[in-house]
Specification:
- The protein is an all-alpha fold.
- The protein has 2 helices and no strands.
- It has a domain of about 50 residues.
- About 35% of the residues lie in helices and about 0% in strands.
- The termini are far apart.
């Protein structure tokens, strides 16, 4: 596997999924993201999930910022 020198991916990463979530409200998007985090953490490292991250693209996709640690904390609560 040849990774670009500019890549932040480590050699143990075989692929990256980009999941786009659209919603009518920020609460809907937050709930969808929480459900996705819950599903991915249930699969876990043994199932191939190494990392969960997100980008806002400098706000070009909208003014909302969702903090993954906060959403993940809601799963444990």
């Amino acid at each position: 596997m040849c990774l670009s020198k500019k890549s932040e991916l480590t050699s143990d990463v075989a692929y990256v999924l980009e999941i786009v979530i659209d919603g009518l409200t920020d609460a809907d998007v937050g709930a969808a993201m929480t459900a996705g985090i819950r599903a991915a953490t249930a699969i876990g490292r043994a199932g191939g999930v190494l990392r969960i991250s997100a980008w806002n693209y400098g706000g070009k996709l909208g003014p909302y910022h969702f903090k993954l640690h906060k959403l993940a904390a809601e799963i444990d609560a």
